[in-house]
Amino acid sequence: MQGPYWRIIMGLALLALGGCRMLAPLRESHIAPTAELVPIADGEAEPPPAPELPPKDAARACIACAEELEKHGSEAQAIAFYERARQYDPKCRISRRLAVLYDRQGDFQKAQEEYHKALKQAPRDADLLNDMGYGYYSRGRWAEAEKYLRQALAVKPDHAHAAINLGLCVGEQGRYAEALELFSKVGTPAQARCNLAFVLMTQHKWPEAKRLYQEALRLDPDIPLARAALAKLEKAEQQQSAPPVQTVQAPAKKENRLTEANNKPTVQQAAYWIPPPPPLSASDEHP
Question: Model confidence at 53, in pLDDT bands (50, 70, 90)?
Answer without folding.
Answer: confident
